[in-house]
Specification:
131 residues, alpha+beta, 21% helix, 9% strand
């Protein structure tokens, strides 16, 4: 059996996603209790301390770029376009449960355009191996 990267054999990242916390104005569209203690904001305010921002938009951007920079990877799927309504489910969509765009929607769209253009310099991708 061929190895990934040989011939037409590639690796797909599927069911990839970063769960978000519903903001107060969207909470009425969800039910139950959140079961993920590490759910992220969809977009965090910029940090003045120099510490990296941890939010869905940044995590998605970094994940797509890292996947793109691995030669055997041929697909990347964000798990879910629309959040589940059950907070015990999965809220990693690019749309809130009411169908409106999360702030991470445009970041995801932008990084997909970037990798499709072929302009990504993999040596500068955050988290990429050095050397």
């Amino acid at each position: 059996q061929p190895l990934p990267g040989e011939g037409a054999v590639g690796i797909w990242y599927v069911e990839t996603g970063f769960q978000t916390v519903a903001p107060p104005d969207k909470r009425r569209f969800y039910r139950g209790r959140e079961n993920d203690p590490h759910a992220l904001p969809a977009l965090a305010p910029e940090s003045d301390s120099g510490v990296g921002v941890v939010d869905q938009a940044t995590q998605l951007r970094d994940a797509v770029l890292l996947a793109y920079c691995q030669p055997a990877v041929t697909g990347f799927l964000n798990f879910g376009l629309l959040d589940e309504d059950r907070l015990g489910g999965w809220q990693a969509g690019l749309l809130w449960r009411d169908g409106t765009r999360k702030p991470s929607y445009d970041a995801f769209k932008s990084v997909i355009a970037e990798v499709r253009s072929g302009d990504t310099e993999c040596s500068k991708v955050r988290g990429a191996p050095k050397g």
